[in-house]
Amino acid sequence: MPRGSLRLLWLCILLLLLLLLPLPPPLPLAGALGHRGPAAPRETAEEPGRAGQAFRDLREGLRAAGALSRRYWALFSCRVWPETCEQDGTAPAGPLGWSLPLLGQQYLDILITWYCSFQDCCDSGDCRISNNFTGLQADLSVRLHGQHLARELVLATVRGYLELPQPDKALALSFHGWSGTGKNFVARMLAENLYRDGLRSDCVRVFITMLHFPHPKYVDLYKEQLADQVRETQARCHQTLFIFDEAEKLHPELLEALGQHLEHQAPGSPGAESPRTIFLFLSNLGGNSINAAVLGLLKAGWSREAITMEHVEPHLRAEILASTDSGFGHSRLVKENLIDLFVPFLPLESRHVRLCARDAFLSQALPYTEAALDEIARMMVYVPKEGPLFSSQGCKSVAQRMNYVLP
Ligand SMILES: *[C@@H]1O[C@H](CO)[C@@H](O)[C@H](O)[C@H]1NC(C)=O
Prior knowledge:
alpha/beta, 16 helices, 7 strands, 52% helix, disordered N terminus
């Protein structure tokens, strides 16, 4: 059933509940009639007056019901979103002196359980937020190929951050590497495992520089829109994820404006209770130095899995800081250490491309042969020219190449 009609159904049930409840003081209409008695001759003359009275009575009745439903709503929302509730959840006695009957209380509990089964609340707080670290770990180890550094760093950092009782700043991760190495893929895995609705969640925002902020002359407008969207999303969810694809192309002023969202919040300052927020920046920046470092180590006889952050990160940082065609390295994000972690995505070899091809077959439930996987891996372009080793496109467009090898 679509959500809209469920919401409607819920409203209907609430109304029904109200009808079943004893309504406060009898409507004055009955009393007025009793006093006056059946005064037959004046009946016609009084018709408009009585109709007016009936209307007023109906209005009073509806108003009382309205007050009642507001009380129900207050109780309901206190239960479901405790943080929006000023008191301890028990609303004060209203003007009608009405208190929630025991039966109503039980209805309320049933209602809440039922409402929460498809809406935004759970015992744990918010059903839109799933934080499935088991799922994340499984995805990172089964579906992501050739990225042992990213696999461990991303899980440990994100998990550590989300389990902090009271983080005083947003978490900012910056993914670097050639295209097709899995940066977008990991961003999607995060969205899918941390949020019930994945990238479509109202707690997640994706910004693609050339799509959302294409014209430098509108940068002031973009700055405003971006700040609004961050604020709105944070107001809607107590755990948010912002993904910036093509971060190396972000306008310097936009990067500057993002700085305020990544700063430490002094305890007690207005923004101090800001929700848990993760910023992901994806870029190709630094890809060349990562590849050079990895190539050097492999040639020196290292196994890929033995490569550590210490081998790669200094080169990555150096390239980011030295880059002149991107504002990223010169922004406050990098200069003031507002990025918590630079995550290197290593260049992929043909055995990784094979695994990507296998996953593509499996995901479409298509049969495949080892020869077909080899064939797809062979279609990619490898670099460097003297001793081809790394796929220049990573696993990008592997899925499209399946068509060429299908029987
Ligand atoms: C977490 O993800 C795993 C793997 O995708 C899934 O089997 C499991 O049911 C999920 N757990 C929850 C609580 O959603």
